[in-house]
């Protein structure tokens, strides 16, 4: 591992700077994300809007810089500039990153429900061509997955992000035994190396990326991971079990496309497609023989949500006018960036505009900002196309893993202990409180949520009394393939109790329904299912620093990603009187 691995995974190392702060000549407007290596802000200079990232100075940043300098492709994230901050005794790199409007690939799949033809043309072929260019310049991404692909709204094409785990040909190795990445996407040869480890380094190859792309494709076609999640002997399944045939899991998938996917997941690298170009050729051949079944959406259309029950008008209540504290209204208006905003992260080092220059040697020191002039601000250093990154002085220290897209960790932390009947639930201990935007956000002004689509059921108060429940509890959401939470508007919602709630045992499923506000997801649970099968009436509302749970950037009015895999659930006041 690094020389210094003392920082705990998931511990936010960046700063929570106030909106309006000047950094490198940019004005910070809002926090986009935070995680184990730093904080990312929406920033502006004039009419230019960027993602500005503050990260500890770190050898991994140099690795990512080297990777991105070698690659120039429209489907690969761009870095616009770099610098150090603060000017006196700098501890952070400042990265100015491309800001792209679009959706993460998994959210896009939920939102658009593509057909097989659309998926191949719009997603897989462009990704294969991009990956071919990445590999051609001696780079292995090492963390291909849905959340590291963003579907750009401007042209509908994918953009590959997060090169924080990348391996560059000729670069010194920074890890022992297991390289960074996400466990569910690791190749069999990587796991075999780990089992037989003799102290050497695993030589990551393009085959690892193609395997991970196969796992991603399997999920896109079936909404299941081919070998399950880490809740169980995941490595053994990857090494020994064949995934279920794609067409058996989802009959809507054309068999030819399912066969391509299964070949990508062969245990031996020699049995897979040898290069991204070979994969693209196989996809193109299958597409050329496609029939009408390729135009059927891969998933059934979601059922129409029932119309909300109208609430009877309430008599007006006399109120006393109260003026909000100064600045509160402005903060509420500022809110979060637009729902379509997805910033492309993944750069932890110094980058110049020239991407065709020779491989970058290890960075020893980084170019400082130019002296500030007149006001307390710093100008971003945009380096000339020289092919050199810096001079010579050892970086200050190693640090925690990179934060990308929302808050992707380079090494995945231990999981929460699995409940006895978890089924589709999987959680990460380091993420249990929150990841991404919610971790660094200050408490927000509480906004009254829209009225719930379902009333509290009769008998809820009797349940509270009979089972001696408290006024609040904590719940765990179901998670997607990349361990984030995806929710649909006005849709059924199922969670599990994280711990006992009075005499109702932990792991008890709670059933309810979601509804969306401007930038938060609200939920009401009206039923608890005991281990005996008995169903109890309850009425709990989601709460995360106020009613509801904040959405991540990139959410839409119908599909949202959350910043947390757990939340509070409070007894609805009206249920206390609902006899």
From TrEMBL:
Pfam name, any one: Pkinase
Annotated Pro residues bias: 299-318
Domain Protein kinase: 26-284
Annotated Gene3D superfamilies: Phosphorylase Kinase, domain 1 (3.30.200.20), Transferase(Phosphotransferase) domain 1 (1.10.510.10)
Protein name: Protein kinase domain-containing protein
Source organism per UniProt: Cystobacter fuscus
Top-rank taxon: Bacteria
Annotated PANTHER family: MITOGEN-ACTIVATED PROTEIN KINASE KINASE KINASE 20-RELATED (PTHR43289), SERINE_THREONINE-PROTEIN KINASE YBDM-RELATED (PTHR43289:SF34)
Keywords: ATP-binding, Kinase, Nucleotide-binding, Transferase
A GO molecular function held by the record: protein serine/threonine kinase activity
Region Disordered: start-end pairs: 294-329
